[in-house]
């Protein structure tokens, strides 16, 4: 038996899983995105494949048959990317000091903190987002407190800010954990060395701590940005239906609208955006370490 | 015109430091004072936990003293953070920045000083050339051997031309041969760079070889300070005598007007101004083997080891305890093991230490 054949045999279980559970569904989704919507089943399997659904993302047929620009979906894409980006930045800004502080704790302290950070995962995401509904609503004490300080009335719920807060809350652990694993292994004598060579605390952070933490920062950013793009529970609840994100319209196409092909189209585009972001990150990292 | 003597490179005044709180407080440094001269190679020597590294970290600014003052070339730096002190450190673990190349590591301090780009390049080149590491400028620390990392750490600490270079057991991670090479190199470097070196080590041989002056520390105090010769030949404490090199310690009673009556009853003609219980110390190379019955002490030869340049004899004293004797000419005839021999102890070689 040749080495190549044996290698293939050994790899076959993994290849099979990837093929059946990742490859086939992805191809199916891409294929469906080219079809017409059907009656009750959602997809008209006998229709001829066309790029009509992709055209529909940007162009709209007017009553007289001319194509006019439709910015509706584009805006939702842009808003999704912007909200995901804001959430990523907020999560990193909050997660970095927490992770640094955790790494400075004793063993027991670290274990307790890790437990506390994972506890929210024991509760359903929907429930946790309902909790934010109660915290931010008009008669809630947070809202009352903010309105007491603010010279003009402030609405905390059912807007982009509420969605960003909810998303940041949901995804914060995904930045804390990879950053913590970096800082846990961090050699603090490097910080002393930096001070010794004349770097102030701020400079040492910038020149030594952050560069060494870069793998954790990149991992944390991707772990927040990617699921944020597809999030639909948080915008549905905290955005009050006004702040739609990609996840919401995809869910709508597969649900209420029963237009699976268009839903698949949106999902393929979302996937493409993620691929672009991840490739860009990987290239940037390779260039830095080269 | 009278000239004001220059202030010492490092001046430490009544510095104390404790770690922990309340009943768990542990005094690491206890009222330590010392002056280190300019361009001096000064070594803090002591066993682990004696406070030598803490003292170095206080001078670097990584720790703050509970009381006392530290001045560098006459400037009080007690309250200054490490990045505002004119000293640099060579760490025991080297602490090179893993994400930077060798030359970026060496340039770090110069960039923090805001030096011009081409001046930095020149200075980095000089520093690497001095440590013969020019060929490795583009490598990362992980791609270097321990000895090479050591050189980069030295180049990095010397590049900003500090007033004082602090070295925290920098050679302890190297193997013996490399350590010997680096010792010579360090000494030459110090003379060449004309910088004050403060060296911390637990290796007494290293301390004696390198230093202009040595301070022997124990339990947060300086027991004795002096040239390597003084420390070796004229220890003032039993601990110092025992810690530095091999030595024979014989307990006894000081006799008024000179001489010590050992616990075995023998009286040794050692000069002293002490009274009460004392210890007589003698180095193995200062005692001589003589025929039984003619020496100051009687002993039984237990074992002889050939060392190439000398013979080391291990002897058993009749009252118990061993006695080491170094015979500097290995060609000289030596008695067989098990024989009774005499020990000649010249009076000028005996040191009387208070207990």
TrEMBL record, chain A:
CDD domains: TM_PBP2 (cd06261). Keywords: Cell membrane, Membrane, Transmembrane, Transmembrane helix, Transport. It is found in: Cell membrane. It is a multi-pass membrane protein. The chain crosses the membrane at residues 73-100, 112-136, 156-180, 208-238, 262-284. Pfam families: BPD_transp_1 (PF00528). InterPro entries: MetI-like, MetI-like_sf. Residues 77-281 form the ABC transmembrane type-1 domain. It comes from the Bacteria. Belongs to the binding-protein-dependent transport system permease family. CysTW subfamily. PANTHER family: INNER MEMBRANE ABC TRANSPORTER PERMEASE PROTEIN YDCU-RELATED, INNER MEMBRANE ABC TRANSPORTER PERMEASE PROTEIN YDCU-RELATED-RELATED. This is ABC transporter permease. It comes from Shinella yambaruensis.
Automatic annotation (TrEMBL), chain B:
It catalyses: ATP + H2O + polyamine-[polyamine-binding protein]Side 1 = ADP + phosphate + polyamineSide 2 + [polyamine-binding protein]Side 1. The keyword Flavoprotein does not apply. Keywords: ATP-binding, Cell membrane, Membrane, Nucleotide-binding, Translocase, Transport. Pfam families: ABC_tran, TOBE_2. One of its GO terms (molecular function) is ATP binding. PROSITE patterns: ABC_TRANSPORTER_1, ABC_TRANSPORTER_2. Its EC number is 7.6.2.11. It is an enzyme of class 7 (translocase). Residues 10-244 form the ABC transporter domain. InterPro entries: AAA+_ATPase, ABC_SmlMolc_Importer, ABC_transporter-like_ATP-bd, ABC_transporter-like_CS, Mo/tungstate-bd_C_term_dom, P-loop_NTPase, PotA-like, Transp-assoc_OB_typ2. The complex is composed of two ATP-binding proteins (PotA), two transmembrane proteins (PotB and PotC) and a solute-binding protein (PotD). Belongs to the ABC transporter superfamily. Spermidine/putrescine importer (TC 3.A.1.11.1) family. Part of the ABC transporter complex PotABCD involved in spermidine/putrescine import. Responsible for energy coupling to the transport system. This is Spermidine/putrescine import ATP-binding protein PotA. It comes from Shinella yambaruensis.
